[in-house]
Amino acid sequence: MLDIDFVRAQFPAFSEASLQGQAFFENAGGSYACRQVIDRLDRFYRQRKVQPYAPYKASRLGGEEMDEARSRLSALLGVDPDELSFGPSTTQNTFVLAQAFRKFMAPGEAIIVTNQDHEANTGPWRRLADEGIEIREWQIDPETGHLNPEDLESLLDEKVRLVCFPHCSNVVGEINPVVEITALAHAAGAFVCVDGVSYAPHGFADIGEMGPDIYLFSSYKTYGPHQGIMVIRRALAQALPGQGHYFNNDVLYKKFTPAGPDHAQVAACAGMVDYIEALADHHGVSPGAVHDLMRAHEEKLLQPLLDALSARNSVRVLGPDRAAGRAPTVAVHCTRPGEAVAADLAAHGIMAGGGDFYAVRALQAQGIDPAHGVLRLSFTHYTTEDEISRLINALDHVL
């Protein structure tokens, strides 16, 4: 079992006086940073804040730390170091990718997107319709929010070059079967782009084993700094036209980075791997097994929350009502606007969010007015059973 005391000792926020008495339930918007990341970021700004990769010591060490982050993170994700790129955000990375596909595809060819996504993994692709690219929408079930792979099969044909979908939605929460969907798309001759932003905080995926051609997530939601992390597998990365400086086209991790990422934040991303390895060492497991430790803890805490909400006739919980198979990101449609309910929870020491969370299409597809929005209760593996009890008690008051 996950040693929750050890876990929380790795996060300075839990010792911060200003946050005492507050239970954090808006982790889907951004997690707390672990001390390993904070220490690396502090060291870089104090000792290495120069242009990296020059021959003098401070510059050389700064470049080595940036390379270390790419090398160790790619190993954790099961890909080669040069298949991993850093950018300012996942939204920006996706926009750059869309520009590469704009040059790569011919008018009349097709891209499949979903209406379950955060707008970052649907909007940039949809805008390619202006270039003559056909956009096909893989639609969710309006009652459950579920993406049915059988519905995808009916959309696939020889014209489809790319299938874009989320590992899990930031409002539906259901974990989509990436391996199955990727196999369907590849069998039809299409590439696959997975938005992993809402899944990665709950366990780093083995991208090499799952098989998608592109996988995107945000390090500020995985206990790190504000960077977008993008994996593009070699065959596709070599085929796509470069979006950076022309003389970097032969360097895969620079090919889709039009502007240099924040050096200090790139280096600090190695701290995320430090943290995973610290958990692995403490629990006597491999780094890859930390994923299962996190998920088991989250599922144990999630089910009582789902049960408490499902027992209320006055609210609608989006997505599955069983913890297995979903992330602990729970969107709740209430009679009052989501933001108003979140404000009331704040008075009880519960930090949560309300709104549309850039998932406007997903809410509309489920019959929810985005202006009314939902209450979103999201947590990760550092949340405690006591905090879940406090949340349920607070919901009893505000609902």
From TrEMBL:
**What highest taxon heads this organism's lineage?**
Bacteria
Question: Which residue numbers delimit the Aminotransferase class V domain?
Answer: 24-391
Under the heading InterPro entries, the entry gives: Aminotrans_V_dom, PyrdxlP-dep_Trfase, PyrdxlP-dep_Trfase_major, PyrdxlP-dep_Trfase_small
User: Which GO molecular-function terms appear in the entry?
Assistant: transaminase activity
The answer, when asked if Transferase is one of the entry's keywords, is yes
Q: Name one Pfam family in it.
A: Aminotran_5
Q: What keywords tag this UniProt record?
A: Aminotransferase, Pyridoxal phosphate, Transferase
Protein name in the entry: Aminotransferase class V-fold PLP-dependent enzyme
Query: Highest lineage ranks of the organism?
Result: Bacteria, Pseudomonadati, Pseudomonadota, Alphaproteobacteria, Rhodobacterales
